[in-house]
Write a structure and sequence with these properties.
The protein is an all-beta fold and 368 residues long. It is built from one helix and 28 strands. The longest helix is centred in the first third of the chain and has 11 residues. It is globular.
C-alpha cells in the first residue's frame, strides 16, 4: 500500500502548486468571518453570473470543488456556452479559483475530493462520460475509466470508487475500485445483463465498499456492503424497504454505513450486523466519518436543511430560512458544510439571480 502523505505536507505542497505560501489551516474552524460564505466567486471575490452547483469540500474545509456555467476573469473559455460546464477548485484561505481543464463537460454529477484537497476526482465528457483524477499539487491528470462515473475517493487519494457501463451513456452496470498507485482495478460486482447500481462509498483503506443495487431483492433496491479482503457481502437494509439510490456513506474505518430507505435514514453496524433508524427523513449527504448527516427538516417540504449528529441525535440548522440545496458535503467533525442554493439572502450582494455554492460554518446549537 502506498505510503501516506501527512495532511500538513500535502496541503503545503498543494498551496505551493497553486502559487501561495499561505500555511494550511482549518478554514471551517476560523473564529472570525461570516457563518455563511459564498465560495462560487472569482479569485477577486466577484460573483459569477451563471449557475454553480455540484460542490465537494475537503476535510478541513479549505478547498471546495464545484461546477459552473460561467466565464470569469481568470478565463474559463467555453463555460459561458450553455453546452459546456466547467469545474473549478476554490482555496478558501487565499481566494484563488483554479480551473480543472479536461473535457469541458462536468454535469454528470458532483466531484469528489481527497481529505486534504490535493486530489479531485470527477466525471467529464460531452459525448459520453469518463472518470478522471487530478493531482492539484503536481498538475498530473490520470484517466480512471471510460463509460464511467466517479463515486468516491479515499482520504489519501489512493483508491477510487466508480461505476461503469457497456457503452458511453450507460455508467451503472458495474462497481469498481481502482488502486491509483498500481493502476489496477478490481470489480466489486456487476454484469452486462440487467444489473444497475446507484450511490456507492468507500472506506479509508479501500477495503469496504457500500453500494446500492437496484431491483435486486423482494423489497426493490438494496444496500450492500462488501469486504474486499474476505470477499464477503452483507445486506444492510434487510427488512427496511426500498433504498434510496442517491445516498450511501460508509465511515472511514468501515464500521458504520448510513443510508436512506423508505423515506428514513438508518445507521448500519457492519460488525454487529444491525441497523437502527436515526432520522424520519432521508439523508442527502454525510461526513467522511459517517457521524454527521445532512437531511431535510421535517415539515418544510425539503426546503430547510439540518445537520444531524448520528451519535447524539443533536440537530443544527444548516442555513437560515428556506434553502433548496443540491449535493451537500460535510467536513470531518461536522464543523462546516457546503451546499448549493438559489436563495439570494444568504450573503450580502447576491444579485446574480441563479444558484451559488455556499459554505456554512456551524455552531453547535441544537434546533427545536
Amino acid at each position: 500500500m502506498r505510503g501516506r502523505t501527512t495532511r500538513g505536507l500535502a496541503a503545503a505542497a498543494l498551496a505551493a502548486a497553486l502559487g501561495t505560501t499561505t500555511p494550511p489551516s482549518a478554514a471551517d474552524a476560523r473564529p472570525g468571518g461570516p457563518l455563511t460564505e459564498r465560495v462560487s466567486t472569482a479569485s477577486d471575490g466577484a460573483q459569477l453570473e451563471r449557475a454553480s452547483q455540484h460542490a465537494a469540500i475537503s476535510d478541513d474545509g479549505r478547498y471546495v470543488a464545484f461546477s459552473t456555467k460561467t466565464s470569469v476573469p481568470e478565463g474559463f473559455p467555453g463555460c459561458e456556452r450553455q453546452t459546456y460546464v466547467c469545474l473549478a477548485v476554490k482555496d478558501r484561505d487565499t481566494g484563488r479559483l483554479t480551473r480543472i481543464v479536461n473535457g469541458g463537460g462536468f454535469d454528470w454529477g458532483p466531484p469528489v475530493l481527497s481529505g486534504d484537497g490535493r486530489y479531485v476526482g470527477y466525471t467529464e465528457g460531452t459525448k459520453g462520460s469518463s472518470a478522471r483524477v487530478d493531482d492539484l499539487a503536481t498538475g498530473r491528470s490520470t484517466p480512471v475509466a471510460s463509460a464511467a462515473r466517479i463515486q468516491d475517493i479515499t482520504s489519501d487519494g489512493r483508491y477510487v470508487l466508480y461505476t461503469s457501463g457497456d457503452d458511453r451513456f450507460v455508467t451503472d452496470r458495474y462497481v469498481y475500485v481502482r488502486d491509483m498507485a498500481t493502476g489496477t482495478a478490481e470489480r466489486v460486482e456487476g454484469d452486462a445483463t440487467t444489473t444497475r447500481f446507484g450511490a456507492a462509498s468507500l472506506s479509508a483503506d479501500g477495503r469496504f465498499v457500500a453500494y446500492q443495487k437496484k431491483g435486486s431483492g423482494p423489497e426493490g433496491d438494496d444496500v450492500l456492503v462488501e469486504d474486499r479482503a474476505t470477499g464477503t457481502t452483507v445486506r444492510a437494509d434487510e427488512g427496511l424497504g426500498d433504498s434510496d439510490g442517491q445516498f450511501v456513506r460508509i465511515s472511514g474505518d468501515g464500521r458504520r454505513v448510513l443510508f436512506a430507505a423508505a423515506g428514513r435514514t438508518y445507521a448500519y453496524d457492519v460488525r454487529g450486523g444491525t441497523a437502527r433508524q436515526v432520522a424520519d427523513t432521508p439523508a442527502r449527504s454525510a461526513s467522511r466519518d459517517a457521524r454527521f448527516a445532512v437531511l431535510p427538516q421535517e415539515g418544510t417540504g425539503g426546503e430547510r436543511l439540518v445537520l444531524l449528529d448520528v451519535r447524539t441525535g443533536r440537530r443544527t440548522a444548516l442555513a437560515p430560512g428556506e434553502t433548496r440545496a443540491g449535493a451537500v458535503t460535510v467536513t470531518s467533525g461536522g464543523r462546516a458544510a457546503v451546499f448549493t442554493s438559489t436563495a439570494s439572502d444568504l450573503v450580502p450582494g447576491d444579485t446574480n439571480g441563479t444558484a451559488d455554492v455556499f459554505v456554512r460554518r456551524l455552531r453547535w446549537r441544537p434546533i427545536r
